[in-house]
């Protein structure tokens, strides 16, 4: 894991952990895994699951999923024209 990912993980983990201050790191990771629907052991928990869950846990409940938001168009006609290549981004 490179330095950027470690820094991002710590930034995402800090506010989440402050809300659950009584938990140790392993308990916190187990809670994140359970909330994300991960049923296997912690050794199979990927960093992508942790990142995604932390990002979504800190966002508004009605907020769009970050990976989908960049591709979303409010106007259906514009979306169709972009998909057909009529409108260039």
Automatic annotation (TrEMBL):
This is DUF1040 family protein.
